[in-house]
Design goal:
The protein is an alpha/beta fold. Helix content is 46%, strand content 17%. The chain has a 6-stranded mixed beta sheet, with helices on both faces. A hairpin with a 5-residue loop joins strand 3 and strand 4. The site of magnesium ion (MG) has 4 residues, from loops.
Length: 468
């Protein structure tokens, strides 16, 4: 009798294990699938660049009007704004040529209240200008008029450096009356309303471009900028002759890919799961930013929570008990993925994280499974991101007709920087899928602040030279 029940037990465990793996398999991607992602990304890039297909393309490949990298002769004091993620920051950046590329920065972080994020555009920009005024006073520079670089990390249609029409909000922003408007004008109008100071808005900058610039200041091989934080996006230096949206065929220009929208026309349907659909449905922008929602910090925790829900419903986790906590959207933040996967963390500690989340009835087995879910979700994100990046570096290599390309990618974003395995998985995928490219990754220190100031500095240098 004992033998039979042991056999039955083993059988039950095997079934349970198979059930769990079947659910997780939907989140595992093969080398062929990743190559497919790379190929499709490459196609979308070409469609975004070409005039006739641009309107239908999901990856918009937006011109940034950034054409020159800093050459070390820039100098001056600049203000920078960083809007586009978790925090809003105002910075004072002092660039000194005679101190061999020294950059001194002061910054202050301001919260963007929910009302400002989702109220009217006027309220949002009045709040931003209020923060600038506070910052100038804090720095003892009240009333100063400085050149300003505005890092605004949303898709904008630019026709020059200091102008950009917001195409759509992403990452939870919703303020009304901004889409379709020039955000530099919205900022200038708000400065005008405040009647306290005047600012020379020189450049509108995407955070990817700021990141590339910051890293390019140190390493001239850096021609790609990547963000993996709240959202994800990439920019890189493209040949002007491939950019049909801009007149003139000489030299290069930085392209803001806005790759987060990849998949919005079904390009990722083969790889997307019910968990991705659930996350999308309850997001602020359903049907949009498909690739971003599979990769970036704003969403990975929610994907994990949805997988855990499924496991629990199937009786494979938490003894099949669905708690109210687990049903609550947003409880599983992406930072928990980093904590749970940290190599130093014992299973006992995973359990205490789960307890902290109010998921109290967990066993040791549950902890192992939760850790596996976190690992699979983060690995898929990193591989998808790597597959996209492989398409980018291979395109640059092909543009230049090179059998081999040496290139540096500047990276920013808390998920990339703090997750214990994300960067390794991503680097490995790029190596596998773009073997003809020797890619070096460097982390940018505050790309969006310093980069905006550097771009502003370059623009001022060129402008001043033209006036001489
Ligand atoms: P942003 O992209 O908003 O400019 P960050 O690069 O700092 O700013 O990214 C913030 C995002 O990083 C948060 O939305 C969060 O999802 C994620 N995050 C925060 N802490 C961690 C962590 N320890 N590990 C992984 N992701 C994290
Ligand atoms: Mg940022």
């Amino acid at each position: 009798l004992f033998c039979v029940s042991q056999r039955q037990m083993a059988f039950r465990l095997a079934i349970q294990h198979a059930g769990r793996q079947r659910i997780l398999d939907a989140l595992r991607l093969s080398q062929e699938q990743l190559l497919d992602v790379k190929r499709r990304m490459g196609e979308e890039m070409n469609r975004g660049l070409a005039k006739e297909s641009h309107d239908q393309a999901t990856v918009k490949m937006l011109p940034t009007f950034v054409r020159s990298m800093p050459d070390g002769t820039e100098s001056g004091d600049f203000l920078a704004l960083d809007l586009g993620g978790t925090n809003f920051r105002v910075l004072l950046v002092r660039v000194r040529r005679w101190k061999r590329r020294s950059v001194e920065m002061h910054n202050k972080i301001y919260a963007i209240p929910q009302e400002a994020m989702q109220g009217t555009g006027e309220e949002l920009f009045d709040h931003i200008v209020h923060c600038i005024a506070d910052f100038l006073e804090y720095m003892g520079m009240k009333g100063a008029s400085l050149p300003l670089g505005f890092t605004f990390s949303f898709p904008c249609h630019q026709s020059k450096l200091d102008q950009g029409i917001l195409l759509k909000w992403t990452k939870g922003f919703k303020a009304t009356g901004c889409e379709g408007e020039d955000v530099v004008t919205l900022l200038k109008d708000a400065i005008y309303r405040k009647e306290e100071f005047d600012l020379d808005v020189v450049a509108l900058v995407n955070d990817t471009v700021g990141t590339m610039m910051t890293c390019g200041y140190e390493d001239p091989l850096c021609e790609v900028g990547l963000i993996v934080g709240t959202g994800t996006n990439v920019c890189y230096m493209e040949e002007m002759q491939n950019m049909e949206l801009v007149d003139g065929g000489e030299g290069k220009m930085c392209v803001n890919m806005e790759w987060g929208a990849f998949g919005d026309h079904g390009e990722l349907d083969d790889f997307s799961t019910d968990f991705d659909k659930a996350v999308d449905e309850h997001s602020a922008n359903p049907g949009k930013q498909t690739y971003e929602k599979m990769i970036s910090g704003m969403y990975l925790g929610e994907i994990v929570r949805n997988v855990l829900l499924e496991f629990t419903t199937k009786g494979l986790l938490f003894r099949g008990k669905l708690s109210e906590r687990l049903k609550t959207r947003g409880i599983f933040e992406t930072k928990f993925l980093s904590q749970i996967e940290s190599d130093r963390l014992a299973l006992r500690q995973v359990r205490s994280i789960l307890q902290h989340l109010g998921l109290t009835s967990s066993t040791c087995d549950d902890s192992i499974l939760v850790k596996e879910v976190c690992s699979v979700v983060a690995c898929r994100a990193a591989q998808l991101c790597g597959a996209g990046l492989a398409a980018v570096v291979d395109k640059i290599r092909q543009n230049r007709n090179l059998p081999e390309l040496k290139i540096t990618v500047g990276v920013d974003g808390t998920l990339y920087k703090l997750h214990p395995h994300f960067s390794n998985f991503m680097h490995e995928t790029v190596r596998d899928l773009a073997p003809q490219c020797k890619v070096t990754f460097i982390q940018s220190e505050d790309g969006s602040g310093k980069g905006a100031a550097l771009i502003t500095a370059v623009a001022c240098r060129i402008r001043d030279a033209g006036q001489r």
